[in-house]
Amino acid sequence: MSPTNPGKTKHKQQVINVVLAVAVGQVGFLTLVIVLGSVLLGFWLDNRLDTKPIMTLVLLIASIPVSVLTMLYVVRKTVARINTEVSQPKIEREEEKPSIDAND
Questions:
Q1: CB–CB of 25/78 below 8 Å?
Q2: Which domain holds residue 39?
Q3: Strand, helix or coil at 89?
Q4: N or C: which end of the chain has fewer CB within 10 A?
Q5: pTM to 2 decimals?
Q6: Is 15 within the bounds of a domain?
Q7: CB within 8 A of 39, min separation 6: which ones?
């Protein structure tokens, strides 16, 4: 069986691909920011408290679950967005919006 409207299917796949690319970029950037922030904060705390590697290691290890939780949050939001984009075409979403009538 072939799809009834191949152009529509292609558009849906393009939307999914773009949203996934954005999600991967967000996850990569947020992970980098979290890890880099924890290392810099660890260096600063180690210099202030004179505990050379301890605070940096603790914050670096603590950044792992924070990165994973952030990744899960971004992925869940992305999947919800994909489901919304694919399940409701743009025309249907616009019809659901209340219209403002000048005669009211």
A1: no
A2: 28-84
A3: coil
A4: N
A5: 0.72
A6: no
A7: 56, 59, 60
